[in-house]
Write a structure and sequence with these properties.
The complex is a heterodimer of chains A (208) and B (326). Chain A is mainly alpha-helical. Chain A contains 10 helices and no strands. The longest helix of chain A has 31 residues. Chain B is an alpha+beta fold and 326 residues long. The radius of gyration of chain B is 28 Å and the shape is elongated. Classes of the chains: A mainly alpha (208), B alpha+beta (326).
Chain lengths: 208, 326
């Protein structure tokens, strides 16, 4: 009788490695914070770093499909969900740092900031869009919703990083170089998706 | 004679042997990938640490300054540590991050340094900064400093009243305002190679603000000469106004009849007013001004009108709409 051997996925090291590596920023911030190496205004520094990491992971998650489209790589698709969840993780830490450490749960001031400070409003909107994406990130959710509706909801994954870049751009006083870099990368990724979509529609109409 | 052949039970089965090699390969790839991912993320974070300010070899000014005495204008709050005052700065001529001035400002050459005092005055001057130190005894002024970005410090400045210098040049009756111009030197101030702001940096005061006894020209902090990143060798301090009003590295002081155009007001007039008095009831579009983070403290503290100097300066603005003239 032949024993059925479970097939090992290719690159079994990939997902655990990216999982561990992605914890580096929060570990670094904790270590630096405990050692008093976050500078004169540690709360502001942590707030900015965590927000930046949320944006990095959003862009990285969006990069997975273009990498497959261009290079034929399949491994990025296996990372996409985790990268998306990490962006939610860092966005949550970013917002928690703002509400807890920075504003000390002064909800009236927080509401004032969200409603009056347009860059905070846009950042808050990005977080709100990430919540349904994170909540429905499981296979069970795909089954429950049906793939078509799930796919439709997860188109919000394109909107959130745009809001994130706007949030970043409007926060800085004069130095828009860094947010511009993220805007360019994001624009390139979206362009690749649009071109791929247009091509698939063209090939379908040709086949018809 | 050949040795005995090993029994079959002593030979590692081939599948297990291959699996061990695969495990080692996977472990190495795991470590390489996690390190690569972590390293990339740290690089994207900028890896900024509180930098040790570089000493300026060109700074031949006195490392220690004589203090005439403690001023009655000083507040009685604990000063912010010297390290924080000198490593957390806005000085866009040397970079846009708070730690950039401490890292980059060593290229500033604070001596020799002359200051021109001109315009609507009967006795214009071009004077070396060290001459000013012989004319005006230095006072320590422990002042609150409040940035429009909603952080604040308590800084023990060393300086002398600006009013004393203005008196010396004998303003005419047409002198209604004073403008302060900073150095223009893209070679040593790399931030000036980009058109972020209209360089050189200019700020201005109304004449009565300028001669108010709280307004000083600072040449030091704690008991040391001003570090480059804090605006060496001479900077303006107006404690009831937001920090950006304090022109650093001043080369020209001009008394004028018209209100002078000022750098941040030109760059963003809806965000940066000419008067820029600390005002908890007038928000900046980006930052509420109702509270501030005192550097070194954990909880925010309420912001005081005129940064706590209302008793001394509110009368300067009697009848003015400070919501409009923010």
């Amino acid at each position: 009788m032949k024993t059925t051997v479970k097939k090992t996925p290719p690159h079994p090291w990939l997902i655990p490695a990216v999982f561990v590596g992605s914890l580096t920023p929060v570990a670094a911030l904790l270590i630096q914070g405990l050692r008093g190496e976050l500078g004169a205004n540690p709360i502001s520094q942590a707030l900015n770093q965590l927000g930046l990491m949320a944006l990095v992971f959003l862009v990285a998650a969006l990069a997975c499909t273009p990498l497959k489209t261009i290079f034929g790589w399949t491994w990025p698709l296996r990372l996409r969900r985790m990268l998306g969840l990490y962006s939610f993780f860092y966005a949550t830490l970013h917002v928690s740092t703002y509400t807890g450490l920075d504003q000390f749960f002064d909800w009236r001031t927080i509401v004032d900031d969200v409603t009056k400070r347009k860059f905070i409003f846009v950042g808050f909107a990005a977080l709100v869009l990430l919540i349904p994406l994170a909540v429905t990130s499981t296979n069970a959710a795909v089954k429950r919703m049906g793939y078509a509706r799930w796919k439709q909801l997860h188109r919000l994954a394109y909107v959130a990083p745009i809001l994130g870049v706007i949030h970043f751009t409007w926060r800085v006083k004069k130095d828009v170089r860094e947010p511009t870099l993220y805007a360019i990368v994001l624009g390139a990724l979206l362009l690749i998706r649009v071109v791929a979509y247009a091509r698939s529609r063209l090939s379908v109409s040709v086949a018809t | 004679m050949l040795g005995k052949a090993p029994s079959s039970s002593e030979i590692t089965p081939e599948p297990l042997y291959l699996r061990r090699r695969e495990f080692i390969r996977n472990a190495l790839l795991f470590m390489a990938t996690s390190t690569g991912v972590g390293g990339t993320l740290l690089w994207l974070m900028g890896g900024k640490r509180a930098s040790e300010p570089k000493s300026s070899s060109a700074n031949e000014g006195p490392p220690s300054l004589m203090i005439a005495g403690r001023s009655p204008y000083s507040i009685d709050e604990p000063p912010t540590p010297y390290r924080d005052i000198t490593t957390y700065n806005n000085f866009y001529e040397f970079g846009l991050d708070k730690s950039d001035p401490a890292t980059n400002a060593h290229t500033l050459k604070p001596r020799p340094w002359t200051v021109s005092i001109e315009g609507e005055v009967r006795n214009p001057l071009v004077v070396d900064v060290d001459q000013l130190l012989t004319w005006f005894p230095l006072e320590q002024r422990v002042y609150r400093m409040r940035c429009v970005e909603a952080w604040s410090m308590v800084i023990p400045w060393l300086g002398f009243p600006l009013g004393d210098l203005i008196k010396r040049v004998e303003p005419t009756s047409r002198a209604k305002y004073v403008s302060f111009t900073s150095l223009l030197d893209p070679e040593h101030m790399p931030g000036q190679r980009r058109r972020l702001l209209d360089w050189p940096y200019v700020e201005g005061l109304r004449i009565d603000e300028a001669v108010h006894p709280l307004t000083i020209l600072a040449v030091g902090l704690y008991d040391k000469a001003l570090p480059n990143q804090n605006g060496a060798p001479l900077r303006l301090v107006v404690p009831w106004k937001y920090g950006f009003k304090g022109t650093k590295s001043i080369v020209k002081i001009r008394l004028t009849e018209e209100q002078p155009p000022t750098t941040w007001n030109l760059a963003a007039p809806h965000e940066y007013g000419f008067y820029a008095n600390v005002n908890p009831t007038v928000d900046h579009p980006r930052w509420s001004q109702a509270t501030e983070r005192r550097i070194g403290e954990f909880r925010r503290r309420p912001t005081l009108p005129f940064n706590g100097y209302a008793e001394q300066v509110a009368s300067l603005y009697a009848g003015m709409n400070l919501q409009k003239f923010f």
